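Q: I'm teaching a short session on how sequence maps to structure, and I want students to see two examples side by side rather than one. Could you give me a first protein with its sequence written out and its structure tokens following it? Keep the formatting plain so it prints cleanly on a handout.
A: Of course. Example one:
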Amino acid sequence: MPFRSLKELDPSEGTVQLYSGNLSQQHLGSGDTVLFPQPSADPNDPLTWPKWRKHVVFLSICLFSCLNNFSGTVLSDSFFTISEDLQVSIEDASGLLSWVVLTQGIANFFWVPTAIYFGKRPVFLVACAMAFVGAIWAAASPNFGSLLGGCIFGAAGGGASEALGAAIINDIYFLHERGSKMSWYIIFIAWGSSLGPLCGGYLIEYKGWAWGKWLSAILLGVNLLLIFFFAPETRFRRSPNPSQGLDSGAASDIPSEKVENDKFEHLEVGSRSLAPNQTSFMAPRKTYLQSLNPWSGVAADSSYLSLMFRPLPLLAYPACLFATLAYSLALAPTVMVNTVSSTILIPPPYNFSIGAVGLINIPGMIGQGFGAVIGGICIDKWASYCARRNNGVFVPETRLLLFIVPTIIVFTGIVLFGFSVEQQMHWAVIFTAYGLMSVGLTGSASITMTYVCDCYFPVAAECLEMINGIKNVFAFGLVHGVVPWVTRMGYARAFGTLGGIFGGLMAFVVPLLVWGPQIRHHTSSKWRLVSWELE
């Protein structure tokens, strides 16, 4: 299994000519935005799909990510009720969340290589079917062991939505669209985690805990139909093209191709696409019925075993390691609050009902929405502005400057939450603190994951696999450890310590901002970490 440098797969090293008056490449409409990656002339290339089709595919997968987390967290406010009904301890009942989180993380390490080898469409169909069956199993469970088994089985399928949901962005969207699309994906995940306890609290209070899973099964069943009918295969073998890099203007004298309104039916195709003697080998456009076929063959350039182990060395890349830390630590405070919220708000002086405890997710969703704006629309606009001021050259590190905004907000929310709970301040202060810390769950995660996709485009799926897998393992440890931690140290000291760790580790963004391009160049050209057969 030979190891290659990343530069052998992507000569650009993440730095590309995003805006240019040079007409040797395909541009967006009549403007100067260069399309990266450059779409091929193959009519089945997902990059050439019309916008409406891309959005329908993306929405179907984002809904899977949302409903997977909805199903996983819908019982989180009813551990006390479940412990009484099924005669188990509250600690055992909390395993319905902790083991689900762990299973989803570990499942990434199976689903991502499987999707690369067999295709994403069959993986999404099987995984969503597993989540659907798992919800039915859990809803119909007569005892706790069966309930836990159903939740874990569903989580094993739902894990496919974690990394692959983000990886599909690279399949169907261009570089200038990645930030906003990544933020949409992240907010669907975050809102699924918030809507689960928010809706489940009241539903379980009046209908019983089983109905939380019945509702999940109904929604997942509808989502399975959406994926079957509207999510074709997006895997496409795209040969690396050195002319897409920084010096692309000097690399080609070929006539340009323009894109009208980002709809490729209106391409003005020049001689650049294919030589005349190659057109006979172009595959015909698939019909709708052909696109429903889940089988698209297997990857020819790697064995399944090598794909299983390919992601492990990639964690050494600085951007991948930093994104893992950022996502894990942005998730940490929200997981801790979801674990202890019922023990804080149900007893005096707050006296919340089970259903009312879920209301803490309303400011959480507001904070997540604000973070998604920062990590999506804002970073795309900022990156565009910086690229234009840099002679049209896009540098991935420009996205990281706005990372400072959610970092400050999250740090404030963590410290405020611990202090307000310790001092038993008004519940509105607690809710506000949770809203502040929720900004990072979408803002920090979206910015760093988009940065990883920019830097390591050819191995983005594997990098996202590592990020999502490790952050879920980290969350599993927090769910198990938060209660003893706050019991021993108190809320102010425990969350103050977490805030210090968060602020200290997030400061590592500074070296990436200052020396990021040099680090990328060195690691891309010198570090042989990618196990990949090149043809």
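Q: Perfect. Now a second example for contrast.
A: Example two:
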Amino acid sequence: MFSLKPPRPTFRSYLLPPPQTDDKMNSEPKIKKLEPVLLPGEIVVNEVNFVRKCIAADTSQYDLWGKLICSNFKISFLTDDPMPLQKFHYRNLLLGEHDVPLTCIEQIVTINDHKRKQKVLGPNQKLKFNPTELIIYCKDFRIVRFRFDESGPESAKKVCLAIAHYSQPTDLQLLFAFEYVGKKYHNSAGNINGAPPGAGSAAGGGSSQKTPLFETYSDWDREVKRTGASGWRVCSINEGYMISTCLPEYFVVPSSLADQDLKTFSHSFVGRRMPVWSWSHSNGSALVRVAVIKDVLQQRKIDQRICNAVTKSHPQRSDVHKSDLDKTLPNIQEIQAAFVKLKQLCVNEPFEETEEKWLSSLEGTRWLEYVRAFLKHSAELVYMLESKRVSVVLQEEEGRDLSCIIASLVQVMLDPYFRTITGFQSLIQKEWVMAGYQFLDRCNHLKRSEKEAPLFLLFLDATWQLLEQHPAAFEFSETYLAVLCDSTHISLFGTFLFNSPHQRVKQSTEFAISKNIQLGDEKGLRFPSVWDWSLQFTAKDRTLFHNPSYVGKSTPCVQNGSVKPFKRTKKTYSSTLRGLPASPENGLLRDPAFLPRRSSLILRGKPAAPQPAGGQDAGAERYFREWRARPADPHGVLLPQLSGAHIKLWKLCYFRWVPEAQIARGGAITAFHRLSLLADEVDALSRTLRQPGAGPAPPAGQDRSRMYFRARGPHDTPATPDFLSSSFPFSPVGNLCRRSILGTPLSKFLSGAKIWLSTETLATED
């Protein structure tokens, strides 16, 4: 028999069990010890123990056990179990591995297996049955599934209701960003607006210091001088938002328009959005945005006055080309409908049931068709600005939706500054945030907006198409674009939280007064800026934002021991930078009959409508043909290829959470890995050449490396790491709910319920 005498201190007995042998009794205190990491102002509102998070599609052997917590910022699943089948995780410092921000939640479905009931939970709805399963559909295409088989039924119901309530707030000030700012910036130690007196006004800090926010006169003045825009001036008549609440306090207008003229004309425009300058070409042509003139009687007079002012701002007094975006491009409702269909195709439908009709189903969504339409129209406006040398006026009903996309794409194509990380961020600040794009409504942060539309995502998708076709021209990677898209669903950054700068000032001022926060001379609270990436990622992880294929403006070279800038000539550019060779019929105005491979996940573009044989169309055709014939210049004009072979589905964004779509040790990341190693070696050699006689350089990648993947030596050719997949740096493990626990497709289990579309009850309750 075993002795009951206590063992020696250095010996641990594995034969004598602890007094409590029941598994539940052992696991309960273990789970209860798990506590979430909370941000300032974040509180736990409800939690439930013994929750099972479903991992695999057809088996429960990989499921995780833990605690499900709902806070006023996110839902968290805390577990001590290691994530199965996962060898890498790209960690967000604000979120845990299993966390979902509340503003990222699209729909909440509760299910009771025994009663065969299911219901989509609204913010103030009652739940008359005890849920055995919770399915959360996210805006970023994730699906997260929890089981409450071992949980208390009442506790499971309460946490489901809490998630439904806090993820669908009824007021803007109930979003977590306000609580975060109120807690962090509350004047308890003599600070003003959360910062010591005299602190700078840049939001967030870190990298945001380098990104102009265009909140001040000086930011706009520097941009006017950077582009060499003569004939334009910074206007301050909207200080205090006295003229328009959907325009910034400072913007650029033609110099020939006096302030009094602008005040008079402003009443005739929708939203009082008078003509504002976006960008100027070196040849003098300018890009201008304007809303529709609602005063029919004065329309012709005001329109002529505005066109004359834009013409006078051109050095050659060239004519003005007006582009009516409402008549040229798909409307907001069509874009939203296409996105809903794309989401259903990529998320809801099991792959084995849609594989045979995948390409036709993708074409039926019309999403890629709309991406192509925006790229095509932007390229045509590039022709007007670059070749015809005429100013372009973008006209739209309110001037704050479609014009954001077109104005941004045109500038990305024409100005290499906006293809850098800092430049791209300043572009979004200028053409989206300060221009009054309605992030609150379009992103549907309050879950009750009929104005929801993925316009910002469409812009990022179109930018990715250009990045895919011209990789050497962009400093940032597609990971950067995907992370930027995800940041719109985090209710912490003021960048993507409001419909206009005026709304930010008004709402934050009211909140500050209610919380007794001293604002001093500040105009509203300073919310964290999304451009301060150090809030979300470590310095190591932020190196994934850098594109190893990017070609800088000048590359240093060493001649006779001295460093000289190496200027590229046409002969030094590789024709491979442009991608696939294009024929004259493969341009922007017409498409060839191209049949894509089935596995390419690309859409066969529809033939463009026949164009009249006019002089302008012939000139555009000639311009595009001549551009394709020239050597690729990463710092020159970029034009998109629009055939079916080139407009692709952005798989990293739409497929990263779908395990069936992953390619282990494959996909674009493998080329990214090899290029990063090569770029790291080149950087190390460059540093060595810059310091002649300084002795042997440290191994590549050990110091000052800008690459995530680093070479260990000059002759190191490592194999592709095992943790790489086509979804890198994201992992789909733990975000799978394509089937029910019994193996029945979820769409059939819910009897064809229209997830993502309906917010009504899916089953009649007793």
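Q: What should students look for in example two?
A: Point them to this: The first strand starts at residue 44 and ends at 53. Also worth mentioning: The chain is about 30% helix and 10% strand.
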